Fold these 4 entries.
Entry 1:
Amino acid sequence: MSTFAKDYTDLDRALDEVRTLIEEWSSEQNSASAPTPETIRYTQLVLHEWIANLLQHADFEDRSPLIQIRLQTENRHVTCSVTDNSEGFNFQDQLPSQDEAMEDLPERGMGLRIINACTESVSYTPTNSGRYRFEFSIPADHDPWLSMLF
Amino acid sequence: MSFDVESHSSDTVIVHMGEALDFRNADEFKDTFQDHVEDGVRNFILDFSDTEVLDSTGLGSIFSLYREISPEDGKVAFADVSRPVQVVVQLTRTYKVFRQFPSVQAAKEALA
């Protein structure tokens, strides 16, 4: 099992860097067990949507933001966590169910749906140390086309 | 970052989308297309050849463009779609709304 680990205090920088760093990390993996290019693209998209979500909506009160990204792969399966020091929010309340109707061609509100479609499991929960952790997994054979958005 | 817009005809432009269309420049994209819509442009060919990032807010701004021009028979076409953008297009099934072309030239010919 190989782990990618990176901490950021500048979320804009995280957004700019993480896509390239994950691509580089992936290319260093053993080709027999490395995630597929599609799995890496879903991972990059989910991380982008999540960090963008934190940048736009998270309440860090008077603290400097800190996020810790941990990414692991085993047998092409990806698991990832992003721990942050924000005040958090109730993720399940915000997460639309797959069969919930959506307005046609919406301008907002697609981010969590995209995250949900790209992942097999996803959660955002408090940690024992008073932080919040976003976790998701993407199996090797994940087929997000089965998850209807429109 | 500003968007590079190339005029093809009086009612058609090509927008070279650059490296990213995300929540950080979606408003700028909207300002860009708004100026051209006000000048009478109805067809927008979006060149995604260099685009590494298209996020949900960026896609939402393209929906905004489509909503604005489609009542007047305007069209939004995706051209030379990069793999990261293709993932979002497939995932959200927006290929049902926006025609895709293998190149900007093919889009120009189809919209002519």
Note: The mean pLDDT of chain B is 95.
Entry 2:
Amino acid sequence: MIGVELRKLLGRPRTWVSIGLLCLLPVVVAVFLAVTGIAPRPGQGPTLLSAVLGNGALFPAAALGIVLPFFLPIAVAVQAGESVAGEAQSGTLRYLLVRPVGRTRLLVAKLVSVLAYTLLAVLSVAATGYLAGISLLGNSGQVTTTTLSGTTLTPADLAWRTGVMVLYIGWSMVGVASVALFLSTLTDSPLAAALGGLAVLVSSTVLVTLDAAGAVRDYLPTRYWLAWVDLFRDPVPWGDVTAGVLVQTGYVVVLLGAAWANFSTRDVTS
Amino acid sequence: MTAREHDPARRPAPTTGGGADGDAVVVTRGLTKRYGRVTAVDDLDLRVAAGDRYGFLGPNGSGKTTTVRMLLGLVHATSGEIEVLGRRVPRHAKDVLPEVGALVEGPGAYPHLSARANLRLLDAAGPARGGDPLAPDTGSRRTRRSRIEAALEQVGLTDVGRRPVRAYSLGMRQRLGLAAALLRGPRLLVLDEPTNGLDPRGIAEIRDLLLDLNRRGTAVFLSSHLLAEVELFCTRVGVLHRGRLVAQDDLDALRGPTGRTLVRVDDVDAATRVLGLPAARTTDDGLLVLDDLPVPEATAALVRGGVAVLEAAPERRTLEQSVLGLTS
Amino acid sequence: MSTVETPAARRRWALVGAGVALLVAVLAGGPRVLAVAAVPPTTATPGEVVARALASADVPYVARGESRGDLALPDLRGFGDLAALLGGTTSTRVWWDGPRHWRVDAVDPAGERDTYGLATSVTTWDSGSRRLDVVVGDPSARLPRPDDLLAPQAARRLLAAVGPQDRLEALDARRVDGRTTDGVRVVPGDVRSTVERADVRVDRATGLPLHVEVVGRSGRTSLVSTLHDVAFERPDASVVTPPAPPDARRGVDRAPDLVARAATASPWLMPDALAGLTASGVDVARAPTYGSGLVRVLALPLPPRVAGEVVGDASSVGTAEERVPGGAVTRVGSGLLNAALVRDDDGQHAYVLVGLVDPALLDAMAADLLGDPPPPRTMR
């Protein structure tokens, strides 16, 4: 069943279109940066972007920083919201279930498929970011790459930090996916599930900035989203990254548990 | 018709002794489904025997689809029991369903894929082993291609090529749905409105296909609101009305003689006078209806009274009449 | 859709529900229980706790700091991050090898500003502007830096200021960030102080203050600073050495900010006493601090042009300048911290007076300064 879901994912034009659009934005940004040479003012614009001019090897991180606030969560929420509700809407859910495919198995396969999509999306953005950065913004031959703390990064350092960042952002997105996947088992409308997932994110983003919500702040799903920036400090503070992984894991476990509890005995009337 | 990979006819009849229901493929006892305060299906006792062509009749909204979904484990009953192929559903659904082919409320397919790609995905999604120990290959990858081709041929979709399902007509999609149901050579076919969107010729083709499968031993549970379809195809009929089973009998019994006799005479008014009401009544098209008056005595009386008897025959109900009688 | 209430479904939901309940209980109740559970009571007197805290400057540690202030100050040109530092949350990372060898990073999602303290200089690195600035020497007056708000630094500064008229009380021992601490409360004896009380929690094992909380007269907590994830270890030498990024802009200066420059450049000889408070401080002639105990006011002469700009900025955010005999006063305040910008009508004298004191005291000091303007230092 997992293989079937992966084949569905990869054989679907929409998968590639959405990933292509995700990769397009950082490339457009890189082109503008390269043509105009105007970096965003410090403290403004997407994180790390001011540092990438003439420092193309840092662009994969900046590229992910560009798509992280909006496009990546939207793409992942749509994909995860689609998972069960999409089958319900196209009328294929009932045929899968009477084939028969066990409901838990179907859910696991859907989860793996969403995981694969997320990883594919994050990796594609990082890879296009790297290519665009190297070709448009020049590689780090003359200018060495530095951390936010001002220390110098060797290419090996940069590689493992970027790798951990890709995994961290990927896992943050799995948190988003689990919200949308749970909602996807509640409703037969993929759109409602995706929008519901995004609504949770927007609420969380609003609450994170609100001092009055300080009591719950550290447990909000988007609280540690930007902690990947910590990977580009020296020494790396692992506290927020670890906390972010734990918070996301909490959401993933609870929401997938709820999705399973709901879907296992849900009446399929689509 | 080509020979199928796993001809259901070669299967021995079930030998497991399940009491009186030993040869039944579908049995429900007190099956009830409530949505909140609405009772969709109420205390249903169905029995479909192996080899039956069972027509499950009822108007729209009578609970047919809910019942079908319960039989397939899609919807969970509020109370009551379901046995399909001798095993409890939904508890043993995963053992039973591989041997059941189903078409529920229209076909479902991924619109961007071709018919073959859809069937390949669907088949790969199911268990590799069927529930039937005598045919362990029913879901295997090795036989997938040939099974898909056979199913497409059965429903007349061999030459659709690589067109995506998006471009199919309603009838073609319906055929694809049937092909999906036939993919694993099921012992039981559960079909909900299978002729939706088909033209008369298509309907006849599908009916022939189902008759052929049934001759080879596949039981067919056909849920429909079309009386004519059921009347033409089924051997046994269950009638559902507002969630309750109001009749379950052989088709012939439901269409059987009413015990009354219809008599055509030249002068109806004279005839009623001769026989005297209420012993004799008339139908709209001018026939006398004899309830408990013996036919020889009545005709003799009419002739004596100077009324000419043109025709006398036992009254037979149409299925429509009996269903309407049951559901009004 | 609907879900059927079968025993299996109930079991599944019960499992998920129990998991969530357990998680919430542990997350919500855990820290609270840990903070007070089984903390052995202290034997130290408040005075001993204060003494140990004051002697803790050499304790090496690595930690994460968080300070939160709600002092709403207007954003004034030349005063850098002051408003953000005292009016918001600042997250820091600390590597403390000793008072002459430390590093404090103020981090935010977009970058960081790192301060390296060395024996004779302080180096700052700003990741946004990619500037590396070295300040040689220690200016007599300067604006607060992120490291000033670290719990140990703020606590030692506060406790060092405590005078005989101020009262010390013992607080119940409790845990801060998992470590057993002794608490001491400072209650100012002078009613002119805007501080209602200040609580300091000091690590029992090392004497390092881990938590400071200042409550203003309004009863509101105005400043909280805590250390988290404290590890008592000597930081790696490479970490507390300023970086040398190849593409950074560099600067070397003796005065890091407007206040320090004004203090160095002041031409006036400040009086020995104002409104009954006597002057003290490293640079008593140019930028003295008046008062004792917790009532202390920094009086800093400003160049009149700078004072004009600051008053302009302050009035643009709604703070009006008020005429007083001999000059004008602009009051900027937030309950706990009050400041007065004083401009003499002669167009030459201007001052800023800042302290955790009542605005009326600042007015009295302003009146003294305007009534008897300080003479130029050359006349001494």
Note: Residues 2-264 of chain A form one domain.
Entry 3:
Amino acid sequence: MNLFAKYNRILLLALVTGLLAVGILFYQALNYTLNGKIEENLHEELTEVKDYTHVKNIVPAPSEDLNLVIEYSPAKTISNKKTIGDTTFYNPRKRQTEYARYLKADVEINGKPTHVLIFNSKDAQTRRVQLIFWAIIIPVIILCGLLALLNRYLLLKLWLPFHQILNQIKGFNIKRGNYQAINTDINEFKQLNDAVRQMTVQIEDDFKEIKLFTENASHEMMTPIAIINSKLDTLLQSKTLAENDSQALLDLYKATTRLSKINQSLLLLVKIDHNLLGEKEELNPAELIKQKIDNFQELISQRNIQVHCDFDGTTISGNKYQFDILLNNLFSNAIRHNKPGGEIHISVKNGLLNFENTGNADALSESQIFERFYKDPQSDGVGLGLAILKQICIKQGYSLRYYFRLPMHGFELQLAH
Amino acid sequence: MKILIVEDEPDLSSAIKDYLTSEGNLCETAFTYDAAYQKISLYSYDCILLDLMLPDGDGLKLLKHLKSLQKTEGVVIISARNALDDRIVGLNLGADDYLIKPFHLSELNARIAAIIRRKNNQHSNVLNFNEIGIDLNAKTVTVNWHEVHFTRKEYDLLLYFIYNKSKAISKSAAAEHLWGDDADMADSFDFIYTHIKNIRKKLSDAGAKDYFHSVYGVGYRFSDV
């Protein structure tokens, strides 16, 4: 639940409860006052009756007030007790049943004890109470509604800086950086803004430092690797090597090649990151893929892999060097993880490049395969090929997706729109 | 041939020097910018190997200096910096080749040999090894003046071995020569074996002697004996 909803819900609950309580109290007070007025009326009428009977010994003529009805009935004794209460009665003068307040008392008429029952219809009074009640309550409700609306608007406006900050944090990309400070005169948001800005600056600095470190470390390693390599070449010229020395030499060659490959891959990643690989130009993916197939011909035919191609004339705008690396990595991957007698399907259609190969019968984890140094335990690669592939796609603006449709593992790249 | 090696790393410098000297070249070394500057100013070479990152200066400046002296030495840049910009700047300044560390000495040697041949033989450019002739311009191979058909990779490989004749060349160096960065594929060593087998067969079918000798299973040597 978001903050506004929560706040409004509490506010609304309090308002409704308060309004109900006030309404009930108000209604009761109004009723009470008007009841008092009626009772006064009843007592006055009774006094009038008493006075009248006292003087004339007959009951008075019915009052002219249509709301006032007096009934007499003989009684056995006279008590001084008076009863007041609410009831309904049939008003013969208006010919309808009405709510009324009544006063019951005993008087002596012509020496006979008589019950006097005076009804005062509440009809008019109820109407009055309702009128007063609504006249006050309706404006209050409208006022509350207006307040709630104002409140909502104000809250949205006041919290605007918060949402701006939040959106920036959500959209923050370490590779692009550039957190933009927001304008606000609210202290809390100023502090938040400062804290986030400091944090992003720190993160960017750290990230740059890591990249620089990777770059420097890889560069520094190149020279020692070059020395090892050259010394191995020199050692190989020796004519006095024993048979088991040569196996060690072979292993050393392999390890050095691998080390240098890791190093070059890391440097390549840094370079792609820094956009150091030149300008974009118009490329024809189908042509470039055909050249690659030629280049990888031995590797492909050695494993009896069938390559099926399906190209349209799509041309794309991209960096040739990066696209070359991208294809290299796709091919190495598709050949390396293929099975003997397997297949590779390549299609370029409407700017969509699909690269599929047969391989293991299990799907790979999409979240893991693009990570650096993640690789299949049986693989002899360095585990950077797909990380480089992904990095190129990010930089060149190609969307990249892995999918598994038995028996093919596939990569789908959106090269152009 | 007279070669100047401008490289600040003594170990690497000596390995290069040993290899090139054993090929019959005369090598001089310079470890610093200043030493290289002096040698370039005073003497003439057939080829100069130039490291770009020297402790006291930028190798590209040496290249500019060399060109300002109107000298015609071939220049191979050897650098750990695999930056496209450096490569373009270097080649624009008149370097003949650009080799990224780490490299195999046989690769370096082949590149130097190719440059020197290009500089010395402007017209016909045929490399002979006994009965085998390689026309570097037409990229064709002849045995006893009869042309033998070679695929592009077989041609490259044969030329590489002839440039490094009498030297043991590891399969890894040969694979890197043919496939460059893609040479890390596990079975690329097997393909070297297959290619060599094919080359041997083509040459012997055409009546040439078998000059390929296996070296401890690590590589091959192309030599007369």
Note: The longest strand of chain A covers residues 96-109.
Entry 4:
Amino acid sequence: MTRIVFVVFALATGGATYAGLYGIGGEDAQIAKSIRSGSGGRVGYIGGVK
Amino acid sequence: MGFDGMNCPNCGADLPETLTRAKMVACRYCESAVVLEDDALRTAGEKGVMAEEPSLFVLGREIRYRRESWLPVGQARFSYGTGWWDEFWAVDGGGEGVWISVDEGEIAVERPYEIDVTLSPWQLKRGENVSLNGETFTVTEADTATCMALRGEFPEALHVGQAYRYWHLSGPMGRLVTLEFSEGEFAASEGVWVDPYLIRSENAGA
Amino acid sequence: MTDGFSPAPSRLAAINCTACGSPLPALAGHRARAMVCSYCGAVMDRHDAYRLLTRYRDMQRPEGPFQIGMTGEILGVEQVIVGIVGVTASIEHEDYHWTNYQLYSPTHGYSWMTWFDGHITHSRKTRDMPETGGNFAYKAPLAAAGRQFQMYEQYVARISYLEGELTWVPALGDRTQVIEAIDPPHGYSVVIGENETEFEFGTYLDRRETLAAFGVADEFPRARTVHAIQPFLPGSFHTALSGAGKLFAPVALVLGLTFLVIGTGKKITETVIVDTDAGGSLVFPLTRADRLAELRLTANVVNAWSWYDMELIHEESEETVAEFDKGLEYYEGYDSDGRWTEGSQTATFRFKPPAAGAYRLTITTGDPKSARLPVRVEVRENVMLSRYLFGLSIFFILCWLSLWFRQSRFEARRWGDDGEDDD
């Protein structure tokens, strides 16, 4: 049990380090979505303007 | 063997070397109890037949209890009222002898106790209070025990078949004093209770 | 028998009840005083030829997994169950019932095994008296038997059932006052009877092991309560979770701090676009497509908002990579609590460029109602995000502390501090 939990935690630490370096959705959501859609089109408004 | 040549006066068998510090020994080979008296050996009757019962104490096997250790070298069995108990004569870590009484898990290590008053057997009745060394004790048991069997060695002569009058006195804080009366004299010992669950012995599981 | 010893004589195996004639197993040693008939409730004096002393008819045997005659090992000692005593106690206006089994071992004497709400405990008489006396207040310390106990509770126990061989001559309804102190997995009880006060040393037993030792299948309901002397024994998963959390929390935290310090990346360019009404643009190279780039807008908006529409174009292909927008708003003022502010004068965008190369960012003030203010644009690349590692370290710290939380809850249940009823 200890070994399994340690392996999972080590993988999670590795994953968080990778995500911190290369991003996995840590980018701006609007831009990321826009890039992913490939259209360059507007994907909507995100923000908290009064 | 650094044996000094003591032999059983009854059957001629070698007697243990440790007899030099004991006063009595039960011969392992014949039915005799042997007493060392004025450096002379004499037989003191039969040693009796002792039924083998499970015991935490086995002659020749050291047991440890908290910070103490005892090596039982003699076992005397006494019958009383409804059953029997064993008295083990044991040598502690410092070479001093102690009596250990064992009765169905009730174990007490007894050391000599000086009594400062003159007692007489008739005043010691169950439920009576007795003052010893400024403390009040209550007589909880008054009975006669008969020696049934002996084996090993002892600091005093014991005789199979002999009856001993004894009293258990309980005092403050669980103090236990045992009085014995024989040949017109009282002998007293103070017992300290031993928790059998804390005894460590090679034979503990037996 | 050369040394004068003979094998143990076969013990008396059974006697017939002197009242009803039923055969009753005789298992205890000579110090057991009473025999209570399992069939007719006759109480007999074992020390007086099983003389009939009294008789309790229609006693209901309390629930419990054990029976007279069962043998098993407890605390390394082979024991035989010789008697059963049912006990009822009223604690804080609630009745509790438990079953005491009188145990006998030829070497260790008489002791008790107790079944209470699915818990099994062992207790034996001790001659170790309390070293500190008098204070029986709740949770007060009590030193005895070489341990530090804590006062737990006091109650009056009443005998509600009797069966088999027992070390004293009991009477149905007999009451004893019990003072209990605990040091899990041990307990220390002061049992005050009519004529004497006794002291008992208790040990919590593993239920599964104990039932197995006596050859009893565990078909009994699970314990609903935490027993007074039950030790806190977390499972291997929770122990592992806590251990791993303790080890990995600092690792994730240090990595997160490292990312925070060195992860600001490399500044590519910084420009101020003055006339955002007309729209402006800046061109910047991004060298790595696999790493994160960052755009930061800063405008001196005060008590206003400013809206920016942006377009990111890959220069070489002239393709629009992304279109996005953002409003900056910032308000400040004074009220009865002093100065207040709301919103922010900056906005940060992080993104992963689809390819390396030159990019152009165009910015215009979109909304007609928006303030028209110059905006500073800063572009960085190779930035690192610490948020994942910080998030993970919070999770790891929670895992680490989870054992402590569990133990606190367990202790609260032990002491009845959890605000829940036992049922």
Note: Chain B has no helices and 15 strands.
